[in-house]
Amino acid sequence: MRVSLASAAVVKSAHEVWLPFGWKKRRYALRPTRYGLFFLAMLAALLIGSINHNNNFGYLLTFLLGGMVLVSLFHTFANLGGISLHPMACRPVFAGDTASVSFFLHAAADKVAIAGRIGQATSAPVDCITGAAASITIPVPTTRRGMLTIQSITLVTSFPLSLLEMRTTVPVTSQCLVYPKPLRSQLFATGHGDPDGDESPLPTAGETEFDELSPYRVGDDIRRAHWKSLAAGKELHTIRFEQTLTGGTMFSLALTPGEDIETKLGRLSYMIVTAESRALEYGLILDELTIGAGKGTAHREACLKALALY
Length: 310
Hints:
The chain has two domains: 26-179, Immunoglobulin-like, CATH 2.60.40; 188-205 and 245-308, no CATH class. By secondary structure, it is of the alpha+beta class. The strands form five sheets. Strands 1, 3, 5, 6, 7, 9 and 10 form a seven-stranded mixed beta sheet that branches. The chain has six helices and 18 strands.
């Protein structure tokens, strides 16, 4: 008796987990594809011709092809059942760029040609095998800074004959940080590590001797580009020199020129990207928030994140 109760509890628990991603909790939308519309028009023409000529073979062919459409409908519907989604970490992007929003797909049975859609952006179709996770990546365009929040994703499939497209919306929670778009500007700061210093342009680090070649990044000085690597068929690199500048430079929102707050944040974003590309130490002052001078990828992301969420 105890064994049967335990088994019942497991079945009930599994049923409760499966239901939110099953058929009873979702709404499905169905529409014919472009090929489906052509196929239905052909069926209508066959039916009209069979009626006019009283052709039994024409009736047989029409009903046979119509039965294929009905069978395709059930397979298309079953192909979207029992799928769960789990969001993946989204890499931050600058406003105006395309964010790659990715999800893991898990299914209770084999699924074929499942695509994800957010707005007008659609991923490439993927196959999901039972017991294995598949991933889809949706290119979502961004227009403004801040936290891009995805609250739902539409699953789409036209399996098996691409005559009918069925879609269903699945609630998800995924976020992507969008940095302010860098706006080219003269670099102004408050001095070397002194938040109360006088306004001054960002100094250029002294170049003593060759240090290394590093992959080109947005904001790098094009005059330091290593064109030989590009001519050799490799990606573009930038020549790095040892820096002799000491101390740090503080970028301040109050001292940044601009007609509105978004313009100022865009110029600060450009200053941070440029300073990091020159391997300079820099900090950020946003009203009451102060990020001390430093450099490196983590420091750059911390400053850009502060700008994005300001």
